[in-house]
Give the backbone structure.
Amino acid sequence: MSALDVHGADLVVMPGHVAQFFLGDDEWHEALIAVRNALALGGRLAFETRNPAARAWESWTPAETRRTLSDPSAGGIETWSEVADVAREVVTTTLHHHFARTGEHVTATTALRFRTPEQLGASLSAAGLGVEDRYGGWDGHPFTDTDEELVLVAVRR
């Protein structure tokens, strides 16, 4: 990502933990520069990420995540996730879908980067954005080290 086709925005929102999909520092920095360039002076970026101190991946086990869904066409679909690897700040998970009607088993692997609040603050600063607020969720409560979520609001300087 090198540019967004937006200029002078007052607000950019990155929902769905999208910030965690930028695994490398260079690609994360490039994304933040693109957002900064899309923002008007004083414009804000808001996004959430999982707090690595909460270690959410420890509950991403088949026993904790197994669910059965019913689809009118496909029938029963059993889903679950499991951690495949934890390497430093990157957690790789496998999401399973088992289709009861056909017996087909489909998997998807995803890697997520868990940056600390300090790492996020430094990366925002390096991209010309300053942390304005930190919350422990979209409900706006103050962030604590035990919160599972970290919502950051950064402002273009």
Observations:
- The chain has three helices and eight strands.
- Residues 25-38 form the longest helix (14 residues).
